[in-house]
Amino acid sequence: MENELKVNPSGVSGGTGGAREYMILTHADYENGIKEGKLLGLRCLTCNKITCPPTPVCQWCGSMNLERTELGREGELITFTVIRVPPEGFEDDVPYIPCLVRTREGPCIVGRLDYDAERATQELLGKQVKLNGSYTRGDKFSGGLRTCPVFSVTE
Ligand SMILES: [Zn+2]
Asked: What element of type H or E holds 21?
């Protein structure tokens, strides 16, 4: 019977839809995972690469065909900076070290480096790091608390 034929020209799999079902890993889920010592991300069922932090589509190929996954806790320190003149609201934190870590699975993640700021030099670049905690802070600009991962150098 023709009226039973289901046409799906976009290639997107069927289902009842709805934003919650579509967004299988929210940023809040990601932050809660960090608090529990886990790096949560999305595995693309089209290209098999990992997206982290979560976005609505695969960060590599744009596919919406994603499943929730947990990354390892290890990565490589790609870059960092030492903050001595803080943004408003972060006066108590200085000096501190925002950093960019490339996970073993591929995605780069922004976090903080747990390291003596007086000893932090370019020689740290490329070192192996590991997720060792979380940092939660609010400021008057972004509205509400945000949690980021904290990494320590393991070599
Ligand atoms: Zn993909």
From this structure: helix 19-22
